[in-house]
Amino acid sequence: MDDRTSFANELVSLKNDIADDVGGILKVVQERKAPKLTKGDSSADERATTKPAGEEATPPRPRRPQPKQTPDEPMIMDNVTTRLSRETNERLTEAALHQKLKKIQPDTRQGIIEVAVREWLKRERYCSSKQE
């Protein structure tokens, strides 16, 4: 039970850290994108306060961070959806969080799956020497 409590506490802590980081980033992005008004610029004042009929002001959507790429090997990612057993999914999530806390790569579910699948393909000889 202690391991689960410890893991749950780590998850909560990690979630709070991520929420704080994302909130700070969004605030900075919104401040940078806000229109800069100068004194006496009535057209800027009108643009800032006038909305077309039926439209509400919506904040810009944050952009998804791009995966890190090395200059030697550009990585093109394809979207693949798969299903895992609940136990495998839970263990994968736990492993990714532990890796992230220890600051060891791969530290994401996607990274761990990529490494595992590449190793399996290599072991089963589905990878050519050019791919590795």
What would the principal axes of the Cα set say about the shape? Answer: extended
Output the structural class. Answer: mainly alpha
Report the span from N to C terminus.
42 Å
Q: Which oligomerization state do the chains in this entry correspond to?
A: single chain
Average pLDDT reading: 78
Number of strands: 0
Tell me about the biggest sheet?
Answer: none
Following the backbone from N to C, one meets helices and strands in this order, namely HHHH
Helix content: 40-55%
Report Rg.
23 Å
Number of separate helices:
4
Question: How would you describe this protein?
Answer:
The chain is built from four helices and no strands. The chain has 132 residues and is mostly helical. It has two domains: 1-65; 67-132.
Q: In a few lines, what is going on in this structure?
A:
This protein has 132 residues and is an all-alpha fold. It contains four helices and no strands.
Give keywords.
single chain; 132 residues; mainly alpha; 2 domains; 4 helices
